[in-house]
Design a protein that fits this description.
The protein is mainly beta and 129 residues long. The protein has 1 helix and 11 strands. Strands 2, 4, 5, 6, 9, 10 and 11 form a 7-stranded mixed β-sheet that branches. Strands 1-3-8-7 form a 4-stranded antiparallel β-sheet, with no helix packed on it. Strand 7 and strand 8 (78-83) form a beta hairpin.
Length: 129
């Protein structure tokens, strides 16, 4: 059974930085972590950054473009999200998701869908003004 755990959330002032990480265990060679999602209070969960199997291409939603950077470990079982220039509107629960490899789904497709096989419990990010 695949388990996904997120780390690194916390309280930070606006303009600050946080580095989130996410690890997966119990995976097979066909499983990989696809990206980061977040859900703010009273809002729907949204995909904010997703990345290809090999880490060669990434997608970012407009609200985080230029401020967040996604990356993955070579063994594909750890995903990172470097978050810089944080804003109060970035306050949310941040989740990591994983899937079986699908050559028809790229990063933008992964981020536009909530239909993923594996989810972590989330890590809270709070940005104070």
């Amino acid at each position: 059974q695949v388990q996904v755990v997120e780390f690194g959330g916390g309280l930070v002032q606006a303009g600050g930085s946080l580095n989130l990480s996410c690890t997966a265990s119990g995976t097979t060679v066909d499983d990989y972590l696809v990206g980061w999602f977040r859900q703010a209070p009273g809002k729907e969960r949204e995909g904010i950054s997703c990345i290809t199997w090999n880490g060669g291409r990434a997608h970012y939603t407009d609200s985080v473009k230029g401020r967040f950077t996604i990356s993955r470990s070579d063994d594909k079982n750890t995903l990172y999200l470097q978050m810089d220039s944080l804003k109060p509107e970035d306050t949310a629960m941040y989740y990591c998701a994983g899937d079986r490899f699908d050559p028809l789904r790229g990063p933008s497709q992964h981020c536009s869908s909530l239909n993923h096989n594996y989810w972590g419990q989330g890590t809270q990010v709070t940005v104070s003004s």
